[in-house]
Every structure is written in C-alpha cells, then in structure tokens.
C-alpha cells in the first residue's frame, strides 16, 4: 500500500463503521428477520461499494470494509440495548 492511499483507506473504514452505528441502533428495535431488519443491515452496502470504487480500491478490501460495517452494526446495537428505558 502506498502512503497516498492511507488517508482514503482511513476515510473508507471510518465511513463503513460510522454509517452502520445508527443502522445497528435502529436494527435493535426491529423484529429479527423482518423486512425492516434486513434493510437496516444491508442499506449501507451499496454506498460502501460506490465509495470504495471512487477511492480506487479493489475487491481485496471487501473483508476490511465488511468487518467495519459489521462492527458498526454490533456497536450500534449494543448502544441501543444498554440505553436506559
């Protein structure tokens, strides 16, 4: 990886994680395996794919961006569960 790719890669992984935080938070309020639940899990994927392409990254970064997206979903869901009612 070249040094000029570090900042775009950091932006991509922060975006993948950050956009999934509120989606994971909202997913926690949905019935498991419902249409809403499915949409909230997958809504960010097209945006991450487009951003990855715009930044010039190939398919090798799919596991990295997927891990960040799943991490954002999990942290967002945990934030919702830990919120006092």
Fold and architecture overview:
This protein has helices at 6-27, 35-42, 45-54, 62-82. The longest helix is centred in the N-terminal third of the chain and has 22 residues, at 6-27. It is mostly helical and 85 residues long. It contains four helices and no strands. The model has no long low-confidence stretch (mean pLDDT 95). Helix 1 (6-27) packs antiparallel against helix 2 and helix 1 (6-27) packs parallel to helix 4.
The residue fraction in helices comes out at: over 70%
Major beta sheet summary: none
Overall pLDDT, averaged? 95
* Number of helical segments with 4 or more residues: 4
| Count of spatially separate domains | 1
Give the SSE order as H and E letters: HHHH
* Content-based structural category: mainly alpha
Estimate the strand proportion.
under 5%
From the N-terminal CA to the C-terminal CA, the straight-line distance is 46 Å
Instruction: List how many beta strands DSSP finds.
Output: 0
- Parts with pLDDT < 50 across at least 5 consecutive residues: none
Radius of gyration, whole Å: 14 Å
Give the CA-based shape: elongated
Q: What is the compact description of this entry?
A:
Helix content is 72%, strand content 0%.
């Amino acid at each position: 990886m070249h040094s000029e790719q570090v900042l775009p890669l950091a932006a991509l992984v922060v975006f993948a994680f950050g956009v999934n935080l509120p989606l994971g938070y909202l997913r926690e309020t949905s019935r498991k395996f419902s249409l809403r639940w499915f949409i909230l899990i997958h809504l960010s994927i097209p945006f991450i794919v487009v951003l990855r392409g715009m930044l010039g990254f190939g398919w090798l970064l799919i596991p990295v961006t997927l891990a960040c997206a799943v991490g954002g979903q999990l942290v967002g869901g945990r934030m919702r569960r830990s919120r006092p009612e």
